[in-house]
């Protein structure tokens, strides 16, 4: 079961929303059709109760804390146009002796979100319910996975994201219509920050081949990136900085030759003087919204 837990301070108290769905969003035009009635109620609600049909009450502060939260490999996350990206997450959950983290209705996980805070997230992805292995009577090592589907993203979602860890103990309550006083919630926000980036591609072609030493070589290519609006790859805007590099045949290291800028549609074109056999490639360092990429070197035969 996947769950969204949102906790906010309202008059000094906590407000909970728990959603039995892989992901949810306040903008109805982008919500998956599978969203449950609980999700609809959670995101539409304001005031003290996060559930439109829940009995009056507020959840209590669950005796649980989070540490060592890890998201992926610790770097930025790249998403293309078709493949679901599975991001491993892990954390240490420390809890009171009276908290049963292995109860059927206890959930813990990590949420990746875009927005100012966990409470004010604009778009988010929750992990599946974490698998927790006890390391002591009051601590556990937990692992889960967050799945990011490019078909649920828009280009505006690229950029700075954060992560938060959460745990919810329903204590026998119906997750879709609980008595909130009986529900425990713990949240740590935020735990990590990263960029969610549009995957990029880069091509290169050096010609003519073969070429005589001292003659001009034209090196061309194209820089494209994933469009989450259309689920296709589109040319990068003009003016993006790209570096042309060269690796001499028989060596393993590339050296910078010159820096150039993308033209309309991400096109790249420059010239160099032929000197020796080797490989030319373009290198793009990326920006906040777009992942870095290196082109596969193209061999040029100099005679």
Describe this entry's structure for a reader:
It is a single chain. The chain is mainly β and 303 residues long. It has one helix spanning 37-44, and strands at residues 4-10, 13-19, 60-61, 64-71, 77-79, 85-95, 106-115, 121-126, 131-136, 139-148, 159-169, 184-198, 200-207, 216-227, 232-235, 241-248, 255-261, 267-273, 278-284, 293-294, 298-300. Strand 13 (200-207) and strand 14 form a beta hairpin. The protein folds into two domains: 4-197, no CATH class; 200-300, SOR catalytic domain (Immunoglobulin-like, Sandwich), CATH 2.60.40.
Number of helical segments?
1
H/E element order = EEHEEEEEEEEEEEEEEEEEEE
Whole-number count of domains: 2
DSSP E strands, number: 21
Q: Which whole number gives the mean pLDDT? A: 84
Q: Give the overall form.
A: elongated
Largest sheet, in brief, is: 6 strands, mixed
Based on helices, strands and strand pairing, what is the structural class? mainly beta
Indicate the percent of residues in helices. Answer: under 10%
Distance between the termini: 64 Å
- Rg result: 25 Å
Low-confidence stretches: 1-54
Beta percentage is over 45%
Signal peptide: 1-20
Protein name: Calcium-binding protein
Keywords: Signal
Write the layout of secondary structure elements.
Blueprint: E1 4-10, E2 13-19, H1 37-44, E3 60-61, E4 64-71, E5 77-79, E6 85-95, E7 106-115, E8 121-126, E9 131-136, E10 139-148, E11 159-169, E12 184-198, E13 200-207, E14 216-227, E15 232-235, E16 241-248, E17 255-261, E18 267-273, E19 278-284, E20 293-294, E21 298-300
Parallel strand pairs: 3-12, 5-12
Antiparallel strand pairs: 1-2, 4-6, 6-10, 7-8, 7-11, 9-10, 11-12, 13-14, 14-15, 14-18, 16-17, 16-19, 19-20, 19-21
């Amino acid at each position: 079961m996947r769950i969204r837990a949102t906790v906010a301070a309202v008059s000094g108290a906590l407000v909970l929303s728990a959603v039995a769905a892989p992901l949810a969003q306040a903008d109805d035009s982008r919500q998956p059709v599978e969203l449950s009635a609980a999700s609809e109620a959670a995101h539409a609600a304001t005031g003290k109760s996060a559930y439109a049909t829940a009995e009056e009450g507020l959840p209590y502060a669950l005796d649980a804390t989070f540490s060592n939260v890890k998201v992926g490999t610790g770097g930025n996350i790249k998403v293309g146009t078709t493949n679901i990206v599975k991001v491993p997450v892990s954390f240490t959950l420390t809890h009171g002796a009276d908290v049963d983290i292995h109860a059927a209705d206890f959930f813990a996980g990590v949420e990746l979100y875009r927005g100012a805070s966990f409470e004010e997230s604009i778009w988010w992805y929750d992990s599946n319910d974490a698998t927790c292995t006890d390391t002591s009577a009051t601590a556990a090592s937990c692992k889960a996975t967050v799945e990011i589907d490019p078909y649920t993203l828009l280009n505006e979602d690229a950029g700075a994201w954060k992560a938060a860890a959460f745990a919810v103990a329903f204590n026998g309550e119906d997750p879709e219509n609980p008595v909130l006083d009986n529900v425990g919630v713990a949240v740590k926000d935020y735990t990590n920050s990263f960029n969610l980036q549009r995957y990029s591609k880069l091509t290169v072609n050096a010609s003519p081949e073969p070429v005589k030493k001292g003659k001009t070589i034209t090196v061309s290519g194209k820089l494209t990136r994933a469009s989450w609006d259309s689920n296709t790859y589109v040319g990068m805007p003009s003016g993006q900085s790209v570096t042309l590099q060269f690796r001499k045949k028989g060596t393993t290291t590339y050296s910078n030759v010159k820096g150039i800028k993308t033209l309309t549609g991400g096109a790249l074109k420059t010239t160099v003087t032929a000197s020796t056999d080797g490989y030319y490639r373009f290198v793009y360092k990326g920006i906040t919204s777009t992942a870095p990429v290196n082109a596969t070197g193209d061999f040029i035969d100099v005679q």
